[in-house]
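Recap from last week: sequence in, structure out.
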Amino acid sequence: MLGVESIIVLLIVGAIAGWLAGQIVRGYGFGLVGNIVVGIVGAFIGVFVLSRLGVLIGGGFIAAIINATIGAVILLVIIGLFKR
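Predicted structure tokens:
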């Protein structure tokens, strides 16, 4: 089970990563809740893709935001391809 603190950190990382990805990939903002979801899903994508490439960014809060942002950007680019 995740503790309350873990859930709060997950939501904060997701919100920051989703917002950053929306800034990087212009035109794909989904509002606060949508950005949190994109950031959280992006975190899983980022960890998966970066581990497959053998890239290790490190641990901690900043590394989690970087991983999640990379994954969220990938997710937004894929969403953008299907929206066209």
